[in-house]
Amino acid sequence: MTHMHPFAMTSQHPFNLLTILGPTASGKTRLAVALARALNGEIISADSRQVFRGMDIGSGKDIHEYGAIPVHLVDILDAGEEFSVFAFQRLFLQAFEDITGRGRLPVLCGGTGMYLDAALRGYRLVEVPEDPTLRADLADMDDASLAAMLQTLRPDQHNRTDLTDRNRTVRAIEIACHVNRHGDSGEPWPDIRPLVFGIRWERGELRRRITERLRQRLENGMVEEVERLHAGGIPWERLDYYGLEYRFVGSFLRGEISRNDLFQRLNSAIHAFAKRQETWFRRMEKHGVAIHWLDGAGDMAGQALRLIGEQQ
Length: 312
Known about the structure:
Elements: E1 17-21, H1 28-38, E2 41-46, E3 52-53, E4 71-72, E5 77-78, H2 85-101, E6 105-110, H3 113-120, H4 132-139, H5 143-153, H6 161-164, H7 166-182, E7 194-200, H8 203-219, H9 222-231, H10 236-241, H11 244-253, H12 259-286, E8 291-295, H13 300-310
Parallel strand pairs: 1-6, 1-7, 2-4, 2-6, 3-5, 7-8
Helix pairs in contact: 2-3, 5-7, 8-12, 9-11, 11-12
């Protein structure tokens, strides 16, 4: 019998969405599962790669940890397809309504900053069609002019990668022009009241966990997974798009780097990524998202349930 926590889904709850965020290898899934068990919850994954079937080890999908807890937005697309923040937000809102409609508590869990923002910051993203006339005009401009144009259109530009890749800069300009012309979609945002927990580890300990987890993933068939995806028809450039693990393993499989290089270089790239995640979480706090930090080395579920008790 499932143990029902006394705070599970009473109508006078001050929050109706629990969120677990933290850097890679911080133990988010395990905590989300423990809290979902205690609070009659279901998990919504906020991860840009775990939506794909067959991309399990490279994306760090810890399927075995979920047990009987239902999980949404994992394994919903075929590997090789595209997934966007826009698509994530639409699916997140559907899952949120579905779970709450059944009287259960949605538990959002992940480390992809843009996805967390799309769920927590309360604005609807706009689906913007391609604008061939605008694209034709932009085709004659050099990269520096495009970047300057985007900075003018969106002075609060925070996604630096939009400026490092020409196609992304063009797309960002297209979106900014559309929003400036038509405004946001104006659809109402549901009444989402999040309670957000973040997982914090001492830096050296997090580094050790990241390295250990990478070692395990390589031993458990991560290279073979990427080989299988490529053999199944996904080109190398497409695999590169799915992030660090797929990019470095692809390099190794093409004979560009040695097995030892693969481990060393991928390991340091994941450490750098974890630092960027922490920077993003700090920015979320600056933008008004209240994050209750839990000590990764302690009893996180216990700390979280105590804080939940104090919310009443």
